Amino acid sequence: MPKRSHDSGEDAALMARALRWIEPFSHWPHARLEQVLKSARLERYRRRTQVLAHDRGRREVLAVVSGCLEVSSMSAHGRKYVNALLGPGQVAPLVRLLQDVPLPYDYHAHEDSVIIHLPSDAMLAAMDAEPILWRDVARLALKRQRLSVATLQGQMLGSVRRRLAATLLNLTEYYGRQREADLSLRLRLSQHDLAAMLGLSRQTINKELGAFVEAGVIALRYRHISVLDTEQLRQIASSD
């Protein structure tokens, strides 16, 4: 279950501030943001809590204020696939702006998270009233499509080593924190999580991570990865 929300006035102020730096809302006029916020709500989730648990088909866009949102699905045999880990400033799923579209993914708080729930109908009404607002949504959707195509191409054509390197690079882009000697991920990430993201076994991921450690590319601690050589990791990710 979500954590109890704070004072409604504080939540409203937090949502208004947060949407100002969350794509695609950062350029929206104040009046349109206010229009959407009237029906929005703020929820606080503990780690591993399912989001939209009681209504998986509810047409809401989820905007991450803090923490991390896991987008995943489960096969009939219980095998989990993690499609994405979305951090602060990211939104999902844009497909819920459409009606009568199958919704194959579930959403969980990968970390303790604060998430804004934005009803799709309210967003559509605001964008239809001011069609230029569709531009930023379209740009974000095209970026997601490009990433999805690149990911699919990597899964079909890339080696495990290359795919793992590319995944770590993508994660550092969103969650990297530069320290004196490394680029540390501000994200609890287990080998099981990486295996689910790449559709591989935990044993395979363990072997490849071990090779990266031996090569001095990364350092491992419990649920924590530090990138020691970003350039070498980038070379691996772009290799044939």
Q: What are the segments in which pLDDT stays under 50 over at least 5 consecutive residues? A: none
Provide a count of the helices.
8
How many strands?
12
Distance between the termini: 45 Å
Query: What percent of the residues sit in helical stretches (DSSP H or I)?
Result: 40-55%
Overall residue-averaged pLDDT value:
87
Radius of gyration: 19 Å
Find the structural class using helix and strand composition.
Answer: alpha+beta
Describe the structure.
With 240 residues, the chain is of the alpha+beta class. It contains eight helices and twelve strands. The strands form three sheets. Strands 1-8-3-6 form a four-stranded antiparallel beta sheet. The protein has a four-stranded antiparallel beta sheet with strand order 2-7-4-5. A hairpin with a 2-residue loop joins β11 (218-221) and β12 (224-227). It is globular. The model has no long low-confidence stretch (mean pLDDT 87).
